[in-house]
């Protein structure tokens, strides 16, 4: 294709040439796959990379994404080194990384081990990981993972299929284990003055062990933050009904931004929460949920997350979040799933 810019004003000509260069670069962008890829003692992982970021998914166990990082950089997810590389057995292991559960939480149903090999299928764009049917629940878990050809952006479709001969009510539950030294950030609903706002807009769920005076919590005017502190082993958990469709985890030099959907007509688990955070000691879990759904035999329900990774320092005060995180939220708004 030949494009002429003769007779165009200099500024417009620069913009046209820049756009042509961008389109040309995009045309050649692609995701590279390495399979099998050895990682942490597992011999059969899959590595996806676009040259900017890399993602490692396990197939010896799972479905699970164990690593998401800038190429050669630190993993944004937390790993348990004493468990990474293990397989088999009937004991549930946390391993680390990102996993899929089904809510509401119940022991032993929720803790069905994911210690067996999963089927991996790559179609040139999307990596689909499908586990065997869980013997104890009759539920089959699946993740479909798509890495953007050039941006630090991953789309994860979490799917639960009911293989029982009866219907089951559940909600897809996507959980990312994050390392110490960072904090979860949840937006609060936009402020409106009284008497304009006469009905409540926030649902906040607290667990029996939640201590609102714990210094790891910051109950701000615009944001709720929960800090991961290795010196404080006591568990803390909280959840919110988040209509804005985003949550983040800020590490010292990284920001993980998670976009997800919200349906005002749906029921969500845990008193109506679609995002939660749990911490205890040197780990924090950032959790999002799809709606509670009555899934018929052989029926499925899906929940979509969009992950974005930034090399960015965000202060703990709300002005810093406004300045550095909100512009990224606006940029990624088109990726917020519509339910």
Strand fraction equals 35-45%
Q: What structural category characterises the helix and strand content?
A: mainly beta
Largest sheet entry? 11 strands, antiparallel
Number of domains: 1
| Beta strands, count | 21
Top CATH class: Mainly Beta
Give unreliable regions as ranges.
1-8, 10-27
Task: State mean pLDDT (0 to 100 scale).
Answer: 92
Give the N-to-C terminal Cα separation: 40 Å
- Helical coverage, percent range: 10-25%
Labels describing this entry:
339 residues; mainly beta; Beta-galactosidase, Chain A, domain 5; 10-stranded antiparallel beta sheet; 40% strand; globular; disordered N terminus
Your description of this structure?
The protein has a single domain (30-335), classed as Beta-galactosidase, Chain A, domain 5 (Distorted Sandwich), CATH 2.70.98.10. It contains 4 helices and 21 strands. The chain has helices spanning 10-28, 269-272, 318-324, 326-331; strands spanning 32-39, 42-49, 53-58, 64-70, 98-103, 119-122, 126-130, 139-147, 153-162, 168-179, 183-187, 204-206, 217-219, 223-227, 236-240, 246-250, 254-260, 275-279, 283-289, 293-295, 300-311. Strands 1, 2, 3, 4, 5, 10, 12, 15, 18, 19 and 20 form an 11-stranded antiparallel β-sheet that branches. A 10-stranded antiparallel β-sheet has the order 6-7-8-9-21-17-16-11-14-13, with no helix packed on it. Residues 1-8 and 10-27 have low confidence and may be disordered.
